[in-house]
Amino acid sequence: MDSFPGYTLPSELALLRDQVRRFIREEIIPLEQRLDPDAPDLPEDDYHRLMTKTKAAGLWCLSAPEKYGGGGLNTFAMSILLEEMSQHRMGLYNAGCGTFGRYPPPVIYGGTEEQIQQYAVPTLRDGLYTFFAITEPSGGSDPAGAIQCRGVKQGDYWILNGTKTFISHAHEAEWGVVFVRTDPAKGRKGISCFIIDKGTPGFTARPFRTIRTVSLPNEVAFEDCQIPAEKMIGQEGDGLALCLDLLTRQRFPYSSCNLGVAVAAHRMAIAHAKQRQTFGVPLSQRQAIQWMLADAEVELRATRWLIWEGAWKADRGEDARLEASIAKLYSSEVLGRVIDSAVQIHGGYGVSKEFPLERWYREARVRRIGEGPSEVHRMVIARALFR
Questions:
Q1: Is residue 371 annotated as part of the catalytic site, yes or no?
Q2: CATH architecture for residues 241-386
Q3: Please, which of 38, 152, 180, 258 could form a disulfide with 213 given CB 3.0 to 4.6 Å?
Q4: Catalytic residue of the set 84, 299, 358, 371
């Protein structure tokens, strides 16, 4: 879809979207079909081969700042593109299999120019893994209250102790960021952010398996982990201020990946209904199937509008927290419903690993928890209604 009443996608963005769509269908999907259905990533040689192609085509790190080698695209544009990048087997948690770039945690841009050059620039250039450690066993949806990981100043160092959990890529990342409580008396203003290098003494990461088969989560431990003071990003106590606006914006591209996978599942369901027959009649002529597909189409169009509207607002610099919660809540729940219908329409094929629906069905369940559970986003929406 290129337009809504009163708005048409700029021709440049429409062309870019079509270019991404072709790359996914011509390069990623055929390659995935030769891999194990639960493969978490591409083989290294294939990744670098395709990375070279996207760099040559100007499709590398499109949302990173131009001054650091990226494309400088805004939230709205990336929401459009990620709907296409995610339409493949690994797409829900590995859009484009990383061949369009891997990004550093956005909070790094709140650091010094020296920190950006040392950490962000190589990550963008080489497609390095990084991690973002904020969630703890005590909870993840309320970091201001839940963070118990402590940082204590000792001379020119900070000593970190505590545990983080569900931290993607921590076991294989070159570096990452961690949020710790440096002043318990100041509440949300007592949380600071530090850069953690791979191999730092006292820092360990243990991956564990979930129904998600990509971007393995980790339990991360800090045991008297000594961090130089210059590894702090921003000022002491700035941790949450650095990340909350960025986390809000991230929910629109995240929602677009939900939408993209749902669109792909819906497309598969339509194609199957047209060719599959029962008792001599195509499924597409069965009212029960027609209504499943009609309901999915309505919900997908509504999801797209909610994402577009919220991303526009965020790009204008307005408060888009309500819209971000609405988009994340609705897109994750629509994703589950659309895939469920697609599995039902496919019958036994829907749960076969020969088709991507089985993997999408499992991984979609996590989307109602990640980036804030549905219940938390309903709380945010309700607060806004009563404010």
A1: yes
A2: Up-down Bundle (1.20)
A3: 38
A4: 371
